[in-house]
Structures are given as structure tokens and as C-alpha cells.
Design goal:
Layout (H helix, E strand, L loop, with lengths): L1 E3 L4 E3 L14 E2 L17 H30 L7 H19 L5 H22 L12 H24 L4 H14 L2 H7 L8 H21 L2 H11 L2
Antiparallel strand pairs: 1-2, 1-3
Length: 234
């Protein structure tokens, strides 16, 4: 149970801000007992249609994935192209589950998508190099895709913070996490897991992370520090 100091109301929610005035909620000691409803649960026609569409989509996904795998096993000389089909189907369901059908913070969804896309293209590069135009042995997923996906995600979260300043506290933690992840490409380069021609994208990604962290330090208010301390339990 949380309390809004502005509206003087108690709210049973996991939100950080009041849904009425967007004031930051405080924890309340007041206990609330939820009474069972006297009415049967309402299930709208939209929910029924959505469940039917999801079941139909699941059926199509299983059929397409299974048929692709069987054909690929019969034609092994064409390469393991069925893996990209199955990976695409898995990514589609991840997209539906954690992006389209969720009320999670949009920054969390962006962070999740950045990680998922990077892993997907890495799998394509690693297991199905024949489907790419890059020379064999080129680690384009780590050298180009990962740095610029991380930069784009950090930039998107930054734009969201400027567009929705009242919800700054809800987004700052994910911007900090994305900035830390932005150092991964340059670390991989230092450990020689990325070829020399991937140095520039890795350096740009690391530089953008440094600029973002410095911006949070110099321009962030007390809320920034309090939120990071709370998240990391410092």
C-alpha cells in the first residue's frame, strides 16, 4: 500500500508515481483488506478474440518451425537455415510477451529488446554465416550491430526522459544500466574478441556511454542519486 502526499489517498499499486497527479508515492503503513467481489469476473469479447488469435499464432508458429526443420534436415547441404526461422519465431513470441502484451516500463522494454536483438544477430552470424553478405570470419554482430544498437537504445531512453520529465525517476535506472552495457564492445576489443576494424564503433559506443554517465552526474538532481541508491541497495 502506498500513499500520495498530494492527493492524500492510499493506493494499492506497484507504480512509483500517483496515477492522478504523478507525485512520487510514499510507502504507507496502512493495511488494506481486499473484499471478495460479489460479481462474477467479466471477460470481454476483445479478450476472447485475443486468446483465439494467440492460439492460432502459436499453432502457425509450431507448424512453420517444424516444417522448416524437417525440410532442412532433408537438405543439409543448404546449411542450417532453419535455425534462423526458428530464432525468428522465438523472437516474435518474446516481442509479443514482453513488449506488446505488457505494461512494463517502456525503458525496460527497450533495454530488453536491445539485448534480444543483439543475441539474435549474433546467433545468425555464428551459426548461419552463409546467409549474410559479410566475409566468413567477420564478427559483424559484435563489431557493428551491438555498438549501434546500444547507442540507439540509450538515445531513445534519453529522449523519453526529456519528453516525460515527470517520470524521470522511472527511467533513470535503465539509462544507467544501458550506459554500463555500452562498455561491453570496447571490453571485447581489449580482449581481442573483436577485430581491429571494429575498434571505431566500439570506441564510439564507449564514448557515448561516458558522455551519458557524465550528463547524469552533472545534470541529474537528487532524485537520480536516490533512485540509483535504492535500486542497487547501497
Amino acid at each position: 500500500m502506498k500513499e500520495c502526499p498530494n492527493c492524500q489517498v492510499h493506493i494499492l499499486t506497484s507504480r512509483m508515481t500517483c496515477p492522478l497527479c504523478t507525485t512520487v508515492l510514499k510507502e504507507s503503513d496502512k493495511e488494506t483488506t481486499l473484499k471478495p467481489s460479489k460479481f462474477p469476473p467479466y471477460k470481454s469479447s476483445d479478450a476472447v478474440k485475443r486468446n483465439f488469435v494467440l492460439r492460432l499464432l502459436l499453432f502457425i508458429s509450431i507448424v512453420v518451425g517444424g516444417v522448416s526443420f524437417l525440410i532442412n534436415m532433408l537438405l543439409l547441404e543448404t546449411g542450417l537455415w532453419s535455425l534462423i526461422v526458428i530464432s525468428g519465431i522465438i523472437y516474435l513470441w518474446i516481442l509479443i510477451k514482453y513488449t506488446i502484451m505488457t505494461n512494463y516500463n517502456i525503458s525496460l522494454r527497450l533495454l530488453f529488446q536491445a539485448i534480444t536483438v543483439t543475441l539474435l544477430v549474433f546467433a545468425i552470424e555464428r551459426f548461419i554465416p552463409s546467409l549474410t553478405l559479410a566475409p566468413i570470419g567477420t564478427r559483424w554482430a559484435l563489431e557493428y550491430v551491438m555498438p549501434f544498437v546500444m547507442i540507439a537504445t540509450s538515445l531513445a531512453i534519453t529522449i523519453i526522459i526529456f519528453v516525460r520529465p515527470l517520470k524521470y525517476r522511472d527511467y533513470v535506472f535503465y539509462l544507467f544500466c544501458m550506459s554500463i552495457l555500452g562498455f561491453i564492445p570496447i571490453i571485447l576489443y581489449l580482449f581481442k574478441l573483436i577485430e581491429p576494424h571494429g575498434f571505431i564503433p566500439s570506441l564510439i559506443c564507449a564514448a557515448y556511454s561516458v558522455i551519458t554517465l557524465l550528463g547524469m552526474f552533472f545534470f541529474g538532481d537528487r532524485t537520480t542519486k536516490d533512485e540509483l541508491v535504492k535500486r542497487f541497495h547501497i
